[in-house]
Design a protein that fits this description.
two-stranded parallel ribbon; mainly alpha; 245 residues; 2% strand; 66% helix
Length: 245
Amino acid sequence: MSTAKPTLLAQATDLQVKLVQIGAAEKNKELLQHFKGVHASLQQHFERTKDLLDTGELLENHELVPKDFLPRGKVSGLRKKVGILRKRLSESRSQLMAQNTWASCDKEAGELGDILDTKFRAIWAQYIRERTQKTEPFAPFKQMESCAEVLAEIERVAVELNQALAELPRSEADFAKIKKAEARIISLIAKLDLGDVPKSVEQFLKRASQSGVSLAELSDEVLEWLKDKKLTGNLRITTGTRPRV
């Protein structure tokens, strides 16, 4: 992984420590208030960024983001500004707030967090959606006694999966939960008894509801059945395969 994470966070941590140390001995009340304000904001940025970078490492471990996923320009600019603030604090602490360096640092730290948060949420949402098998192809069978209970359970598990969208993953347990739900849905789909539906159609529907189907699997018999049931718009037909993580 990029070395930007420990370098930037280490610099921010050092700045926080120095703010506390110098602030403890500072007599100028106005300057002390500046120290406290900067320290509080730094702490918020530090905690948020650390959580996001931990999430980034998780996503990286599952090959959902590239190893160098941090926006280099933002990180480089922040590292430079934090370095300036550290130097001022050591050599001329009364100039800590000069030239809008801190204001710019505060703004860019927030922007970095927003960029990572937006990017990771989009990736996490896609990861979950790809594992939430669609049940639309089975809509005509909801009234069948042999299917109703299984389809209701599939939808319940799918709802639980979608609830995971609210929070970014924080540990491997979050990924394990998604994979467990996915396996449960696959197992339930395999149990569906579609009655007198042609075997080729049943197999096609089950595959389509899971990982999608290729054009080669769309036989004339299947296509005619789908047209008759007006289900052609509910299927995902792919021309290639995408590896699962």
